[in-house]
Amino acid sequence: MFYSKNRFSEFLKFGGYSQEDVLIHKSRARLMQPSFVLVRDQKAKCFLLFIRGAISPRERLTAASSVEVPFHHIVLNEGQIDNVILGYAHCGMLAAARWISNLVMPPLRNAVREFPDYQIKVIGHSMGAGIGAILTYILREHYDFTSCTCLAFGPAACMTWELAESGKDFITSLVNRDDVVPALSKVAMESLRSEVMVSSKLDDPQDEAHLGLFAKISQRVAFAKSHMLSISHSTGKTADPDSSISEPLLKEAVEITQPEENGLKIDCICRCFCRTGHTS
Q1: Do the domain assignments include residue 172?
Q2: Minimal CA–CA distance to 46: which of 148, 101, 120?
Q3: Cys-Cys with 14: which of 1, 191, 256, 268 at CB 3.0–4.6 Å?
Q4: So what's the pLDDT on residue 231?
Q5: Is 156 within 8 Å of 125 (Cβ atoms)?
Q6: What SS3 string covers 186-206?
Q7: Same domain, 160 and 40
Q8: Which domain holds residue 54?
Q9: Are 175 and 235 members of one domain?
Q10: 165 and 262 both lie in a single domain
Q11: Same domain flag for 176 and 257
């Protein structure tokens, strides 16, 4: 419901939330500032952060800002730095994730202290799923949010492989069959480009047979056109020299002495066709 263009009140009604459960809400999307909402789900005992996918032109521009920028994840273990994962991330999604983190961390920290048994879950779709995945990395670098998990529906490619592998324990991605958004990435496009270039250099016997058949048909069509033109314009008669059928016709046509009048020329050519077994 939140991902559609329905009113926010309908989303609250559908989820069974009240205005008191809404911790922060940004409905108007801007460049690298997507629409999101942070709510408290008392039934599930969770703080749910919903991030919408790209619907408005500004959100699509955020998705189009796909320059790779450095992004490193600090892994905490009992409040201490255990590891650092180096990598790169999508520029637009990373900027959006940092913008959301700056807004949600103060109210979320207060809410976690008030309800320490509540879990934190980030939910996103498409571009919002990619932003949510990066945001989960950012939140987990803080001790109060180390239990944060992410549920990504059709996430867009947003980070390098090492970073993605390091988050498989707390990020769940759901992809609908052949959805193009999760599969579309720089690596996939380079792989497709390489396959197309390699396949274009291979000799396909079937394609050669088709080209040969097309060449023969073209020769027959050219031959027919040449003799059709010779009937209406005898001086402009042409024929395909590679055609074995046209050779005796041309040879016999040259040997015939044609009168100067156009009507007699046509009659001579028609007789030539009849003697060789062709009809005009």
Answers
A1: yes
A2: 120
A3: 1
A4: 36
A5: no
A6: HHHHHHHHHHHHHHHHCCCHH
A7: yes
A8: 8-184
A9: no
A10: no
A11: no
- The pTM for the full model equals 0.65
Q: Left (φ > 0), alpha (ψ -120 to 50) or beta: where does 154 sit?
A: left
Residues 220 and 180 both lie in one domain: no
Does residue 139 have a pLDDT over 70? yes
CA dihedral 75, 77, 80, 84 (to 10 degrees): -20
Is 113 within the bounds of a domain? yes
**Amino acid residing at 161:** W
Same domain, 97 and 215: no
CATH of residue 103: 3.40.50.1820
Is residue 1, in this structure, part of any structural domain at all?
A: no
pLDDT tops 80 at residue 69: yes
Arithmetic mean of pLDDT over the chain = 76
User: Greatest CA separation found in the chain?
Assistant: 113
Instruction: Tell me how far apart the alpha carbons of residues 168 and 119 are, in angstroms, rounded to a whole number.
Output: 18
Helix 91-114 and helix 127-140, axial crossing angle in degrees, nearest 10: 50
Q: Residues 258-273: what's their mean pLDDT?
A: 45
**Which residue has tokens 């997507």?**
34
Residue 51 is inside which H or E element, if any? strand 46-51
The answer to whether 225 and 245 have CB atoms below 8 angstroms apart is no
Question: Which of the 8 DSSP states describes residue 5?
Answer: S
Number of domains in the chain: 2
* 195 occurs within a structural domain: no
* 143-184 tens-digit pLDDT: 889 889 999 999 988 898 899 899 999 999 998 887 877 777
* Co-location of 148 and 235 in the same domain: no
The amino acid sitting at 143 is Y
- Tokens matching residue 114: 């008030």
Sheet holding 149-153, edge to edge: 22-26, 36-41, 46-51, 119-125, 149-153, 171-174
What's the pLDDT score for residue 148?
Answer: 94
C-alpha atoms less than 13 angstroms from C-alpha of 88 in its C-beta half-sphere: 9
